[in-house]
Amino acid sequence: MTFASQRLNEFPDWVKNGCNGRSIGMSAVPQIADDAGAPRKSSEVGHELPSSCYTNWCPMTDYTQIFGAITNDPRYLRNLDWGEVRSGHPEGTIRAHIAEVDRNLESLRHKLSETDYWRLRVIIHTHDTFKAEAQPGVPITAPHSHASLARAFLADFCTDADMLAMVQYHDEPYALWRQVASRGKFNQERLNALLAEIHDWNLFLAFNIGDGCTEGKGREPLRWLFEQVAGKVESQFTAADIL
Asked: What predicted TM-score, i.e. pTM, was given to this entire model?
C-alpha cells in the first residue's frame, strides 16, 4: 500500500468513493507535445485524477508529513549526491541544487500560505531528484525522463493532481523558451496545453522563480514566461518577483 493510499483510508467514505459519489477512476493525462513539438500518447506520461475532482474532491492533506516521508525515502536519499558541475548547474549535485532552490523559496515565503510553502518544498525536493536514473535526452513526457520518474515517485505519497502535473512539466516553460531562442518562435499549442494542464499558477510561477533564479541560470526564460502568461492566469507573482 502506498503512502497516498494510507492517507486516503483516513478520509470518510464520501471521499474514498470519489467525486460526487462516483468512483475515482484513473484517466489519461491530456496530450501535450514533446520537446520536438510532436504529439505524444497520454499513456507515455502516467495517469491522474479526472479534472472534475479538482473542485469536487478536496481532502485535507498534511504536506509536512508528505515532505518528511519523501525526504526519508531511500529512493530519494540515494540520488542526492548525483551530479557534477555543468552548464546551468555550477552547484553540481542534486543536493546542492535543492539547497539553492530552498533558499530562494525562503525569499518568496512572505507571499505564500503555509500550505503552499510546504507544497513547494515537496515539489522542490522531488522535481530533479531522479536525474541519476533517467534516460538522457528523452522528451519531458517520456516514461523514463527525470520528470516522469519524479512524478511517479511523488504519486506514491501524494494525490494532489496539480502538484503531480507541476513535477511532470516543470521544465516545459524552459523548453518552450529554448524554441524561441533557437528558432525565433515556439509551439503555441504546446503552451496552450500547459496553461490548461496547470491549475494553480500562483504555485507554479513561484516554483519557476525559485528554480530559475539559481546561480548559472539566466533570467530571460522567466521574463519570457511571465510575458506569455500575462492576463491568462491568476497569480500574485509577477516578473518583479524574479530574484
From this structure: 0.76
- Contact between 178 and 224 (Cβ < 8 Å): no
How many CA atoms, within 13 angstroms, populate the side-chain half-sphere of residue 171? 20
Question: What is the rounded CA–CA span in Å between residue 64 and residue 66?
Answer: 5
Q: How far is Cα 178 from Cα 72, in angstroms, rounded to an integer?
A: 35
Phi, psi of 85 (to 5 degrees): -60, 130
- Cα distance between residue 170 and residue 38, in whole Å: 18
Does the structure show a pLDDT above 60 at 93? yes
Cell numbers placing 117 = 510553502
Domain boundaries, the chain: 62-241
Sign of the torsion angle spanned by Cα atoms 66, 106, 216, 34: positive
Q: What is the pLDDT of residues 40-79, one digit of tens each?
A: 433 344 434 433 333 333 333 699 999 999 999 999 999 9
- Contact indicator for 15, 8 with CB cutoff of 8 Å: yes
